[in-house]
Specification:
The complex is a heterotrimer of chains A (288), B (260) and C (283).
Chain A lengths: L1 H36 L6 H8 L10 H13 L9 H32 L1 H14 L8 H10 L5 H24 L4 H9 L4 H35 L9 H10 L3 H33 L4
Helix pairs in contact in A: 1-2, 3-11, 4-5, 4-7, 4-9, 4-10, 6-7, 7-9, 9-11, 10-11
Chain B lengths: L4 E14 L2 E14 L3 E5 L6 H8 L7 E6 L4 H6 L3 E4 L11 H12 L3 H14 L15 H13 L5 E5 L7 H18 L2 E6 L2 H7 L2 E6 L4 E7 L14 H16 L5
Helix pairs in contact in B: 3-4, 3-5, 4-5, 7-8
Chain C lengths: L2 H22 L9 H20 L10 H10 L1 H36 L1 H15 L7 H8 L3 H24 L4 H9 L4 H37 L7 H10 L3 H29 L12
Classes of the chains: A mainly alpha (288), B alpha/beta (260), C mainly alpha (283).
Chain lengths: 288, 260, 283
């Protein structure tokens, strides 16, 4: 354990140090301008102090981001429009609903592809191609089209999240369901196992590692989808909206705190899936 | 060198630290190998034969005892290009043609380009694979790949050949053929060969000296000087002398609890 | 229900039956491209027919024919957007980010301590919504293509880094021992052995990053852009409800993405010709 924790800790501390140094560098021009206007000379300590506490810094210092996050998570009412919990929940609900739908649909399509050759030949090439095209570019259009027929709020974002998580799940599950080798399938056939039995007793258990890997990818993609889905609708609610409005009004600290909250959200969600994966793998006595 | 002992081991000990505690791979191993000998190391898994070979190759370091190769330490011998190593798997690079594969050590060691071409041709002739220079490893059978691996070990004039179960992954018919070829090679090149194997007939067929080892801890049980004639057709395996030597090997393995 | 719609439904069903027949036939090997094309083509036909049949306003969902017409009529705008987003934004960021990641990976490989610290951090960063750095980078680098290039660089850096590091760890023990018996220096071992075994992983990273690059460039433009670019065009035309132009832009983006990816696959075939997956061994 110590072998990995120590280097990670050292690297993280280095990153923090580099960050602090860069915020001095990037914010210094503004600090110097202000000092010139007040006809004052800045000592180094004053420069550092200034660059680490500006209201609209080019690069907020880590503690500024931390303070803003602390304030807007713990010290604002959860229903207030300034609370990161509120915005986080908006984004999270879209992410989770889209992810759930995408996973269910994805698994269904994967089952169809693996069991029906016509589906495999016709649809699978399009699924694979879809991985090379920037589907996220469809997001604004989906939002606008759905809102014009009356669907606003959670639903359009969930739709975007759904199709973003759908593709990695299909690809991963197809790979996983096809992972048993010829020997194992032949063994099943010597026992006259039906296709359903082969699916439940062999293909499905063997696809679990692939499933979890694509669940992690799908979850990350869902979150990005939900965030991007918040951009076109005039940016009212959600972490993406918060980032956008922060960039409109020059509130850099707001942008960074929303970004970090999104990052923590992403890490926790993916980590949760990873934890479930470890549990399931242990129970199945499978090496991860 | 004027020292006829090409490889000398004196009370060599080697302990591996594993997650389950220390494992004594080699205990008080003492052995002399003279120039031109063909020495087989035989024993079950865990008896230390591969570890001993790797120690000679300076791929492992003994904890105590003396080990010299060509009169110097194994590391120095390696720097002097004293030996060629043949692994259990051919270990050919799939992105290099056969000729380029054989050239690999020459490139690393900094030979001249013109010399490289000459040497590659010579060793491929030696193993009967001339004409395969531009093929790729996956186009060759397992036996042929191992012959390339042997050619590769011969191309830089090392006087020692270290071979770790090189024919273990091949079927018996190919194995017999390669055994014959290896003996022919040994006669024509006069190298000193250390050969690790699991197979009693193979060990007896090939060697002038057989070192029987046993596990837990890894140690030498018996050293048998073979008095079989130098010219050995495959039929020699049915003669009384052969069977007697094989029996002695088997007894050594039993004494070392290798069959438990 | 319009006749056209019923006809196109019929075409779709017929195409599906044809695909089932092809799936069962023995001439499969040669005609593998037919089923997806039949499927896609018949779907397009249904799309076209549905607009008329269900009285869908072409403003909300333009039929493929309208999109095609718009595409042909706006080639200069589309080309300008393509150059802005793909060439200036995505491609530059891709080259810069992937090269930087490669260089860092080689460095990290040399110093095991860095690797143990950076690999988990890198994995962590690769899972984050890096697209969120877009507004920040637009702030720093302005509205031009430079900020989009910066977003792409950050987006492709971590996936490329972890793929390269994993690739460099891939060589077999036997191969490395062999190099050791030749007394090869670490640099020789790197160049002659480990880079080659890392290639499949490196190309895996390059392929993943090609998609990320295009997405990054387009979405970054949603956060601010001069008056050109695929993302810019999509967000403004969506606001104007000129969805045929939006679909035309998406088509261009899709073609660009597939060609970019396909190009990398071609190079991969040449460089990693020796790898089992390229030699057509059935898995």
């Amino acid at each position: 354990m110590n072998k990995t924790i120590f280097p990670i800790a050292v690297i993280s501390v280095c990153i923090l140090i580099v960050w602090y140094v860069f915020s001095i560098i990037l914010n210094s021009s503004w600090a110097f301008d202000k000092a010139e206007r007040n006809k004052v000379q800045l000592t180094f300590i004053e420069l550092v102090d200034d660059t680490w506490s500006q209201k609209k810094p080019k690069l907020p210092a880590p503690h500024q981001v931390g303070q803003e996050m602390w304030k807007t998570i713990f010290y604002k009412k959860v229903t207030s429009k300034r609370s990161l919990v509120y915005h986080g929940w908006i984004t999270l609900s879209a992410t989770l609903s889209g992810f759930l739908l995408g996973t269910i649909l994805g698994i269904c399509l994967a089952l169809a592809i693996v069991h029906d050759k016509a589906t495999d030949l016709s649809v699978m090439p399009w699924i694979i191609t879809s991985q090379t095209i920037p589907i996220l570019a469809l997001a604004p259009m989906i939002i606008v089209v759905l809102s014009s027929i009356g669907f606003t709020g959670l639903m359009p974002k969930a739709v975007i999240s759904m199709y973003l998580s759908f593709f990695p799940i299909v690809v991963g599950m197809v790979k996983g369901l096809r992972s048993p080798d010829l020997l194992e399938i032949d063994q099943m056939k010597t026992w006259s196992a039906s296709r359903l039995q082969i699916l439940l007793k062999l293909r499905f258990p063997k696809s679990i590692p692939y499933l979890f890997t694509s669940l992690k990818l799908g979850m990350a993609a869902s979150l990005v989808g939900a965030i991007v889905g918040e951009l076109p609708s005039g940016a009212i609610a959600g972490l993406g909206a918060r980032m956008l409005s922060g960039s409109y009004y020059g509130q850099t600290i707001q942008i960074w705190s929303a970004l970090f909250t999104a990052a923590i959200l992403a890490a926790s969600l993916v980590g949760l899936i990873g934890a479930i994966q470890t549990l399931v793998s242990k129970r199945m006595m499978v090496s991860q | 060198m004027n020292d006829p002992k090409i490889i000398m081991a004196q009370d060599v000990n080697l302990v591996f630290e594993t997650g389950d505690g220390p494992v004594v791979a080699l205990k008080d191993v003492s052995l002399d190998i003279k120039k031109g000998e063909f020495v087989s190391f035989i024993g079950p898994s865990g008896c230390g034969k591969t570890t001993l070979l790797r120690a000679i190759a300076a791929l492992e370091k003994p904890n105590s005892g003396a080990l010299t190769v060509n009169g110097m330490s194994p590391e120095e011998a390696r720097q002097q290009r004293a030996y060629g190593y043949v692994f259990q798997a051919a270990g050919l690079y799939p992105w290099r043609s056969i000729a380029k594969n054989v050239r690999l050590p020459l490139e690393v060691m900094g030979f001249e380009k013109s010399e490289m071409a000459v040497r590659v041709k010579k060793v491929l002739d030696l193993v009967d694979l001339s004409g395969f220079e531009n093929k790729y490893p996956w186009q060759l059978s397992g036996g042929m790949q191992q012959r390339v691996s042997i050619a590769r070990a011969l191309c830089f004039d090392a006087n020692i050949l270290l071979m770790d179960e090189p024919f273990g992954a091949l079927d018996e018919i190919v194995r017999d053929y390669l055994n014959e070829q290896l003996l022919k090679l040994w006669h024509s090149t006069n190298k000193t060969i250390c050969f690790v194997t699991h197979s009693i007939p193979e060990a007896v067929y090939l060697s002038t000296k057989i070192v029987v080892m046993s596990p837990r801890p890894g140690r030498i049980i018996d050293i048998i000087e073979s008095d079989l004639p130098n010219e050995r057709p495959l039929e020699i395996r049915d003669t009384k002398k052969f069977i007697n030597i094989a029996q002695r090997v088997r007894e050594g393995l039993k004494a070392g609890h290798s069959y438990e | 229900m319009s006749l056209f719609f019923i006809l196109s439904l019929g075409v779709w069903i017929f195409a599906w039956i044809l695909n089932i027949a092809i799936a069962k036939s023995k001439f499969l090997k040669i005609k593998k491209a037919i089923p997806p094309l039949l499927f896609g083509g018949s779907l397009l036909l249904i799309w076209e027919a549905s607009i008329g049949a269900f009285d869908i306003s072409p403003v909300i969902l333009p039929p493929p024919s309208l999109v095609f017409i718009k595409l042909i009529n706006s080639t200069s705008i589309l080309w300008g957007d393509f150059v802005q987003t793909f060439v200036k934004g995505a491609l530059t960021g891709y080259i810069f980010g992937c090269s930087a990641a490669f260089a860092v990976a080689i460095l990290v490989d040399r110093f095991k301590f860095l690797e143990r610290g950076l690999l988990p951090v890198g994995n962590f960063m690769a899972a984050l919504p890096i697209i969120g750095t877009a507004p920040i980078l637009v702030r720093w680098f302005g509205f031009g293509w430079e900020s989009k290039s910066a977003v792409v660089t950050v987006m492709v850096f971590f996936p490329m880094l972890i793929n390269t590091i994993q690739g460099l760890q891939m060589s077999d023990r036997i191969h490395r021992d062999l190099m050791q018996t030749y007394n090869a220096t670490p640099a020789q071992t790197l160049i002659k052995l480990r880079l080659a075994t890392a290639m499949p992983f490196i190309f895996n990273g390059l392929k993943i990053c090609s998609t990320l690059a295009l997405i990054g460039a387009i979405v970054a433009e949603f956060f601010g852009s001069p008056i050109k670019g695929i993302g810019f065009r999509i967000s403004t035309e969506v606001g104007r409800f000129a969805l045929d132009m939006v679909w035309a832009e998406i088509t261009i983006a899709a073609i660009a993405g597939s060609l970019f990816y396909g190009g990398i696959v071609l190079v991969e075939k040449v460089v990693t010709f020796w790898h089992p997956s390229q030699r057509g061994r059935a898995y």
